[in-house]
Amino acid sequence: MSNLCIPSHSSDGIAPSGNSLLIDECPENLENWNYTIITSKCKGPHYTAKVCCDALKELACPHADILNDLTTDCSVTMFSYINLYGKYPPGLFANECKEDKDGLNCPEAPPPSPSDNGGQMSSTKSSVLMVMAGLGFLAQLC
Hints:
Organism: Dillenia turbinata
Shape: globular
Strand content: under 5%
Structural class: mainly alpha
Protein name: GPI-anchored protein LLG1-like domain-containing protein
Helix content: 25-40%
Radius of gyration: 16 Å
Domain GPI-anchored protein LLG1-like: 29-105
InterPro entries: LLG1-like (IPR058888), LORELEI-like (IPR039307)
Number of strands: 2
Pfam families: LLG1 (PF26578)
Oligomer: single chain
Number of helices: 6
Largest sheet: 2 strands, antiparallel
């Protein structure tokens, strides 16, 4: 098991700073993601684990490739925005959303449609590994 170096948060408290030698800034602009996928479903004061975790998977699983990239801050940045927009209690997702030792199991990718010009797409099971690391980090910040 390798260690994960998580960068500190920037002064605005939203996204990690780009000062880390080991972690690059996320190549995708996560600010514009549709966080209402989570905030419209996962509501307090009594958060339902299944509802909240399913919403998290709906948002995160299509982006598992960038969230699992240990060389970027994508996962931590995503959770910064989730916390900013949803104002969730510290550790909510980290404590409630556990499916196996690797994190959340994302559904298999859908089979390619006939309009894909015959291109092949592999259908594999993916785990959102960094998601849980990002959640644990944010839980410690609050």
